[in-house]
Amino acid sequence: AATEAELQLAYARALAGLARLSDALARYRDLLRMDPDNGVYRDEFRRVKGMQDKMAEGDDAMRLQRFSAARRLFAEAMTLDPANEAVAARMRAGRARSFQLQRKEALDCETKLLDAQREAKEAEEAVREAQKRLVQAGDRLRVYSSRNERLQTEMAADEAEHPAPEDPTPVHLQPAQACRAKWAVCLAVSEASAALDLDA
């Protein structure tokens, strides 16, 4: 009859063969507690633990989008026990998933690249248009600055050559005259407003 240790070992191997590595490791730990010096237990425990570690590292690499590293780790997990079909199937599925995610990332990257190129082109066109407007504004500034300077010079020369006549209105009447002029302007504005209202 098989001993308890033999049954436990067979069970651990069956669990490992189903890729239930955590459960298999728990059985191997029980066996090692019963017989710490057993080389078979230690070797099989290390092999199963190695597969589990490589699988976990591969999954972590996938989450970090390190797809090449993930595939390498999955391949290393399979080499630890080439006869384990369940583990090999999981690793092949992981590799396929890594390629799928990598292709999706490449497509997303290509889309974003095209968007960035379009935005860069639009920005370049906007910069060129702004530079064009800046040049035009600078040209206008120079033209009108020169024209203003020329007009100011001509006006100053004319005023110096032909000074304005003094106001003949006596000084004590000038404020009243200014007031009448302002009142005349107000009346003109009022009449113009009324005319506009009638036209409307």
From TrEMBL:
It comes from Cryptomonas curvata. This is Uncharacterized protein. Residues 154-173 are annotated as: Disordered. Keywords: Repeat. Gene3D superfamilies: Tetratricopeptide repeat domain. The keyword Repeat applies. It comes from the Eukaryota.
